[in-house]
Design a protein that fits this description.
This protein is mainly α and about 220 residues long. About 60% of the residues lie in helices and about 0% in strands.
Amino acid sequence: MRADAARNLDAVLQTGARLLANDPSTSIATIAAQAGVDRRTVYRRFATREALMAGVYAAKLAACEDVCEQARLTEAPVTVALHRYAEGIITASRKWPVDLGRATDEAATARLHQLLLRLDAFLARAVHEGVIRPGLPDRWARALLTHLTNMASHEMPELTPAQGADLVTHSLLAGLGTGAPQGPAPTPAPAASASAQPKGARTQTRTKPRPKSASRKTA
């Protein structure tokens, strides 16, 4: 594919993702106009709106697969891989703001299933290595991670992907982490002294009378 044709295709797919996410009934002519591409060029590539939507899903799936590869979910330290994954998914979700769960064609659903299996395996590794606590309901960690990345992607556009990844990682581990203490345990605070107690709260102590000393004889 020539470079200009590739640019046009990318513009059509990104514009289609944005417009169809807001209004699934958006016409191909409208998408072509917004993308700055002749609609006949779009029709030659996508005969129907459904075909264009399938192309959008395929593009987002490819972006998500690349994120998983770049994050090195099976090799990198868990917290490092988690941050890389969150940052990459936020970037991909903003570029392709469509819900992959709505994809209906068999090829897209199969690719999505494989992505979810990779994510589940990564989170199982996080449990095995003591980063996430065990005993959580099935798919709970994955559902929370998906919710957090979606929130950072679409509800907080003022965040950069790196800032969003910081918050996603912190929120997930603060909620589901093992909570192992970092460093020595804090020293217990000393008990309050009597002088530090509020007035009227002191307990009075009786002093025993001093025994009388024997009178000293004078020479």
